[in-house]
Amino acid sequence: MQKPLLIIGNKNYSSWSLRAWLLLKAFNVDFDEQLIELFHPSATSILDEHAPTGKVPVLVYGENDDKVTVWDTLAIAIHINDYFTNVDVWTGLSKSETKSPTSIRINSAYCQSIVAEMHSGLAGIRNEMPMNIRATAKIQPSNACLTDIARIEEIFADCLKNRSKDSYLFGQFTAADAFFAPVVLRLQTYADASSIELKPTTKQYCETMLNNPHIQAWIDSALKETRVIEEDEAGEIISIAGVLANK
Length: 247
What we know:
Elements: E1 5-8, H1 15-26, E2 32-35, H2 44-50, E3 58-61, E4 68-70, H3 73-83, H4 102-120, H5 123-128, E5 135-138, H6 143-160, H7 175-190, H8 200-210, H9 213-222, E6 236-240
Parallel strand pairs: 1-2
Antiparallel strand pairs: 1-3, 3-4, 5-6
């Protein structure tokens, strides 16, 4: 099968791009990536060619009548699971291990449900705490944002209650970890600076995720970016890291 191309946006800001990119990396899918500038005219021709919605991320492979296009992050997760990996993205287990035990089916259903919940909801934190990896910023979170954070902490605590403190949500890395990765980065940017107190379980899970080598690689790339996109800036900027720190 031809190596797929993943088209993504600026790594400092594009949370949905991170989800798809991290899924591919975590499940050892060999792919090329093409980064476009969000909200910039240079991206128009690429998006017009590959992205029916005009948005990133989009996964493409094949040519002409055999071209396959997947343009939604949840769809990308499903497509990766169906065609690109022998590891089940919902459990982190070999697909041969996921056929019968009820406990595995329960975990798979839970993972799919919280991925879908993240994908379609939690608009408060999404709107008020946009991903901005290089920044430490202070906001005044609304009740909607705080309610979302409480729900996220409930999910983390429920997943991790019977697992080691340095575990991923279902033990092995799954699609749920990829979908909640931008939340971890949002909390790093805004929580302490905004006096949002997080539970110990949440802090430990955030540490586990931040130590993931693929997330570290994404962060390193984000800190090398220089473009500031005002549409994705929020709150009072306390400090800046990366190449912009000295400007």
